[in-house]
Protein 1
Amino acid sequence: MLSKVLNHYKRLEVQNEIVKAAQGKEAVGSFGGKGYGKRPDVLVYPNDVLEQVKNGVTSFHVSEETWANPQRISLNMKRNEYDDLRTGWDLVLDIDCPYWEFAKITTYLFIQALVEHGISAVTLKFSGNKGFHIGVPFEAFPSKVHDTPTKNMFPEGPRKIAAYLLDHISRKHVSVDSDSVTFAGRFKYTLKELEEKTGKSNDELVQAYCENCGKAGMEEATQRIHFLCTQCGSSIDGLVNEKYKTCSKCNVLMERTVSDNKKSCCTKPNIVKKFNPLSIVEVDTVLIAPRHLFRAPYSYHEKSGLVSVPIPIDALMDFEKEQAHPDKAEIGGHEFLKREGIVAGQAKKLLVEAFDFVARKEQRKVELEDMDDMRRSDIKREFQEVQTAIPEQFFPPCVQIMSKGMTDGKKRAVFVMNNFLSSCGWEYDDIEGWFKRWNEKNPEPLRDQYFLGQIRYAKQHKKKILPPNCDNQAYYKGFQVCKPDGLCQYVKNPANYAIKKARFAQKQEMKGKKSVENKEFKEKMDKKEEQKVEQKAETGSDAGSGVVTPD
């Protein structure tokens, strides 16, 4: 292997391509796949490649992030220091699949999804072993999104894009029939064929889920007990251990029936079947971390003995691994992450929709967990909707403390405060302003996209729900902001606290106004009486009767 590696890297065109790919990035050598060299490190000159190979390096890996000076990177740096040093990041989707046929199909679907989002700057290369790398250079992204520099959206930007694209592909480009799965409308396999090719079971390949709540469509089988009155026709569900039930209207025993049923995921399930792409493919970008590395173009792969060679997108389905043999690989024919001639901002739609998708998913998850808590505790959350925004002076102690900024639990606090403020009658523009002011108080601020996505989701659905109840251990006590006052013992929810306190203040204000009005009226009447007395004394007449009294 060492002989093959040395012969490959001796080629000047290979050295030039690797150095070109490493510009502005960390470039780290791997020793036989058994470990990396020192970090941070860079490649500046073509001869740097050959010198490292002579010292035992067999492959080269570069960072997805670009830096003003990679050698200034330190493990002791804080998040804001990384952001200051970072100049951008490239989107690199690492499609890793042990089934070569499906590795190409999955890569094809990802590329199609990117193109559908208006991105033309998509490039491709063979990873060197089991899959492909799909690249979109940073130049295709906007410089800012909602006043936040895009360069600072790492690693959450690529993570959320990968999660969003997986969902988009499984919903838009993979259809599941009773006994077959069709990819992109052109690659069709029966479930039996998929099971044979992948060794996966039917339940692993295809999952039933509820479109309403996102949970698995049906849970464990249960016995359903049902009571029916044969006289009036009324019916009611019963407990498993109930043998008899009397009709409340007719005062007769009801007829008991038992049926095997499966428990629904929610009250109104809409069960659909969806192919699970993660059953046959891994997308490493989902697990991406800061300073993440990927194999450089034309770098050797120790396990396969092949080269990570860039290829044209339209040649994907015809590409075979033999074309990546070091002696056969075409060097310099195609560029991975090509940066010239890129239309800036073409990937904005993808980035915004990815952040919105994850925000909706996270909010929906918390809503469902909260609804589960409600059902278990039998707490009704219906309340009279507030028509006028409640001022902050009436907020409960926990919210007052959170409003000053938080060190931990900020993401959960976004969910709490979004629902709290909307329940208190705040308009969404005012909620957005509150979050921006609050975020500036946090020692380590969140990305604006995190709370803006949740606000947009709530605004689009025009759905107001109460924040989690006071006894929910995951929130206020978990934040260590639960400092109850005298009113807290009479409410179960922070929004109810604000509503009660605001209404009490309003009543007191009305009482005060009424008291003032009564006082003014009494003073006015007293003044009239005084005037009558004075008039009577002066004229010697009864002002009230109009009769003249003789001397």
Protein 2
Amino acid sequence: MSGARSFPWLASYPAGVSWDMPLTDAPAYALLDASVAAYPDHPCLEFLGRRWSYREVGDLVNRLAVGLQQLGVTQGTRIGLCLPNCPYYVISYFAILKAGGVVVNLNPLYAERELIHLLNDSAVETVITLDLALLHDKLFKLIGQCTLKRLIIGGMADCLPCAKSILFRLFKRGDVAKWQKDSQRLCWQELLAPTGARPHPVALEPHRDLAVLQYTGGTTGVAKGAMLSHANIYANTEQSAAWFVGAVPGQERLLAVIPFFHVFAMTAAMNMAIKLGAEIIMLPRFDLRDVLKTMTRKKPTLFPAVPSIFTAILNDPALGRYSLSSIRRCISGGAPLPVEIKQRFEALTGCVLVEGYGLSETSPVATCNPLVGLNKAGSVGLPLPRTEISIRALDNPEQEVAASERGEVCIKGPQVMLGYWNRPEDTAKVMLPDGWLRTGDVGIMDEQGYISIVDRIKDMILYNGYNVYPRNVEEAIYLHPAVAECIVIGITDAKTGQAVKAFVKLRNGHTLEAETLTEFLKDKLSPMERPRHIEFRAELPKTMIGKLNKKALIEEEAAKSA
């Protein structure tokens, strides 16, 4: 390791955390195995009132892994997970890894054409989902349109407490898909091997074999699969858990409302909780009233979330009816955390709320403010253990800039992806030969090693912590016959961090209302991707060579905000 001058963050490192801590060389599923061995009778999962112990979860993972292997899953087989937060997600995730497979995370809100792209790109033939019509019907239609051949379907009523299960079957029948078991649709519960069964061991190389394909826009363009190895996932979980100084293994309760299919939640909620032997209190979606009731009744101690959730809690007029005092440690990610929100939430709960930074390509956490020691407002903190940050000249990624100068944030560490799935040219654009990852973000590192993100090179829009890709939105808008040209950008939004805005030029002789276009996009884009603002213009700005000029509109909107 170089001297402290090359690593200015070392002098600022929080007490109790070692930057050069040893990391475990093991497959990602070993995170669960270790906690099953250490805390077999401790609660592991809680879902709408029903609980599973670590022993029970470990057994279900083994039994499903056996079933998957009998189905033909071998080393490297890619299996899609299209699920909200629920026990099926956690159990299926670790079972896929234990069977030797690769998890491909699919957002249940994605439109059909987006799912088709991801399924074809990853060559997924099997997807695990729920029997809810909203999910089943959308996915079942895709069989024959892409590589998808079968669904493994879990029953929603089967993972509820007895009384709620009966009520669900009585009063929510309309929400459940009508389906029959056949070669294309298998029952999740019937795939389980007998209690006590164990899968055939798979000889995985943690630093080489894939654990997760996490789709992202990368620095530009259409969504690409970030290849996260077992070592990437395990390392980032250990780094994140070590950062939570004071968390007591086997005694914490983590409220998981951010969705596990999002890379931030996968690591900072699910995997970190498993590493700590914590109980994961799952909510299937964000509903402010449910979140506040759960905090009051079930007393979580850890709460990872995106800034918009913290903001929504603080702005609830009925907040005084609830108790949030059990929360001790929170991490915010996915979008910039306003300083005012951080301070107000800490004052309300007595917790420590820190902001982290990362990308899908870094599994995802790369930096975070310390939970003990100096917590710099407006900063995304210090590099995690074994992580190096270098700020490089914007016109020369090989040249490092001086402290407090702007440049591109580059990252090196055990959590950095292997590359993009089947896209060597795209990988070469972001991975430097010496192992540094170019993030596409403009940042500053001060003399104490704290990093601030000041701008984004990439076009990607961060809406509520989700990646929204302008090109994808533009392609959907162009499907309307009245549209001649369009440009989509992200604009500042106090609630969601950024919002999607579309600028549209119509074809001659055509008329179109914003409401009509929004309705047209409903089955083509997920709710997070649909433009919140639509502006029609007679002409859109162009560059000197005639290309649509997105930069001009970004600057125009920035001037309005200023």
Protein 3
Amino acid sequence: MEATVKTPTENEETMSAIELQPFLHDARLSVAAPSFCAARPDGRITEGADGFYHGDRRILSRLEVGAPGVPNAPVATVDAPDGHTAFVTVLRGLAERTADPATTLERRRDLHPGRLVERYTLHNAGALPARLRLEIRAESDFATMDTVKAGRTATPLTPTGEDDGLRWTDGPLTAALTLTPAPHHRDAATGTLGYDLELAPGQSWQAVLQCTAEHRDGDLFPAAATTPWSTPEVTGRDHHLAHWLTRSHHDLRGLLLTDPLRPADTFLGAGAPWFLTLFGRDSLWAARMMLPLGTELAAGTLRTLARRQGRRVDPATEEQPGKILHEVRRAEQHLDTGSHLPPSYYGTADATPLWLVLLHDAWRWGLPAEQVEELLPNAEAALGWLERYADPDGDGFLEYVDSTGRGLSNQGWKDSSDGIRFRDGRIAAAPIALSEVQAYAHEAAVKSADLLEAFGRPGAERWRQWAERLRERFRDRFWAQDEDGRYPVVALDRDKRPVDSIASNLGHLLGTGLLDAEESALVARRLTAPGLDGGFGLRTLDAATAGFNPLGYHTGSVWPHDSAIAVYGLARAGLHQAAAPLAAGLVRAAAAFDHRLPELYAGYPRAQYARPVPYPASCRPQAWAAAAAVLVLQALLGLAADAPNRRLWVRERVPAGYESLRIGGLTVAGLPVEAETDHTGAVRLRAPEGFTVTTVR
């Protein structure tokens, strides 16, 4: 029979010519910032984004263990806290007299900042001797994170062979891999190390591999030695919220970084693998979510960003006086969108007002007055940015535009190029004034006025008036109407036309003071409608919008932090009945992801799929997705604090499903707070001495 030659289609030729971002949904990820490891479900590091990474560089691009000619059959993977994972495989056919497996290889991986350790245990439980050559193959390409993320390939480096392992060097970077005991065989050209072994029945054999990474200039942001928050505890009936909080606590510890300019100051790297560094918006939101567990993380985040606050006008980096930056890397990033981001990049419209809001909220939760006061000059500089630079066209709204043509085209949290679009699917043109950025600015102005007044500094009344004028302008320009009634649009575009799509940005407006009670109720109705709420959280874009894609990064997917902010906003607006089902959707989704909520997941409705569908390239863990567990708990309890005036607020009753729980690890002004819910859901709060507790419905 003659072979048929298939001619490639145009689509197939195009796909073969481009490089695709690697998927992560089936990877095993562990993190010990500034390091992380991504591997196949059986522990192999072989493909795509797999690797041992440190400081945004891939230290190992391959790490495989096995016996040539012997099939490896993975049978178990066990995760433990703080970057520890065990992989168990059966070496098929070795020492087997019956169909029962006899020889197993356990690969126990421990991740530490700058160091990967693997402990190998071979055990022969069979009745025959097991003879094999165990080979370990390692490669390093030192690929940069933007190279990996874009799906670009990097050439493996040739290592130098040493008695006990291998060494790779590339400029300031060095990686050393050692084995104990020393291997019997070594082939540096192929990166292969081997042992000739014979195990008698019942015998075990062990070896330890260690790979260390070092940069000549040290780490851009070193690891943290201690955890700057208390450990959350939910006891009583078994509850998925408790498991979500516990897993989040461990993941957040793995994301902790420090400021080398003041190592006592800690902050959360945004997420692994793509964003394990300082991000203004992400780090600020995550620290704000964690305030009920202490103010130390917030203080470190505020100070770390304040040291890098904009001081000059630099169009190349988008720096402006008083502006809070977007992200920091060691080197320029070359993104797959064609963008080139400088190492310190200020292209964000919302980090500056969010910095001001966090400073105020940390003060309310008990950040010592002297620490607040030392940051007030930075707060005044940030307010100056709101007034002088955030509104370049003078229309009274905060807007952004990428002036370089090389930066981010969208500079709110939905920062993908297609993230802001009209209901008919058209992409909005910049300059863009986002609805939630106006809300953040309003809240920042009002709360900053409270701070200025409390600390005897001028300007409080002027900023309250500024906020009120913004509120009036927003009501006049941002509200639209469709067949279901009035709603706030997502943005105004370059021509000041309302970008009329219905999106999850609505949730960020609630509780900021920008909306009145009637407007908040209208927003709540939109958030809880099936177009946005699919049962596992809020879709980023309403399902009826042209261009909706349940797997679109910002055009239909679900982001846990986004949904948690909506839950928190609804609770702050007193709309607890609307908040409860959204909170339940997040708890439900967390359980489906083994209580480690990823950066985002698909926006398919629960009625279509009983479990949330992963977004394949999502970070896991992601700081604000993990910290969302604390924010949801705070919203369910209705917990609010005013430490300077020794006051706390809590709800009278939690929603159904949260009865008979005891919540510990909460703090205010460094003092312990404990909450209990009885079998009816009634809440009792044990507050520190001298605090007044007010119960609200």
